[in-house]
Amino acid sequence: MKKTEIINNELTLIMDDKNEHKTIKSWIYKTLKNNIIELVIKPNQKISEFYLSQQFKVSRIPIREVLTILENEGLVEVLPQKGTFVKKISLQEIHSGIFFRKAIEAEVLFEIVESTQNYDLSYIYHTLELMKKYDWEKNNDPKKFHYLDNEFHRQIFKLVYKEYQWDKLDHFVSGHTRIRFLELFDKKTIVNIINQHEEELEIIIEKNKDKIRDFLSRHTSNFIDHLNNIIKLDPDMFE
Predict the structure, then answer these.
(1) What positions does the domain HTH gntR-type occupy (predicted)?
(2) What is the residue-averaged pLDDT of the chain?
(3) Could you tell me the pTM of the whole model?
(4) Which residue in 7, 78, 79, 93 is deepest, having the highest Cβ count within 10 Å?
């Protein structure tokens, strides 16, 4: 995806390619959401409608509409007399997201392993191989890894026609995603995630439903450990 960078004293935005979007509103929404999720715009950072309208070269109307959507998604908050700010990462929302993801992912894995169908796993293998072959020490790229990680899980959900549910789940756990971006600057975390993906594929291939609960519990426990470490490093990002 072609992207350009806009630098300003107030904000640095990484802009999505406008030509890849059918509407101006979609372009603005995707650009702002990506910048928040990827922590380009930090938690508690102020967002100026006037500045955004200048950068996107639009009136304030679509800017306000997009900010309303992002507010409903829990990514920004409007404070009377103060302005619009990127919302701090809610620990309550993160733990709720962990609960829902674990429950839904368990159901999907059980449906896969209990089926008699022989699934085509070639694309999932390919995605995993891209993760393993990339030299993360020389070219640490959290955005690329996040894309591959998301694609890996989405393709697993797609095996049982649940990719829509994955997209909705990924949308719901935006706080979880922001934490994942912080994690992905750590080489050890990346190695652990790749190992977990290999284990998940092994469960699917072996159709071993007895391992699913334990696997997801360990996966969740590892994430919470990382979360606690991140909170200690930068507590001001959280609420």
Answers:
(1) 22-89
(2) 86
(3) 0.81
(4) 93
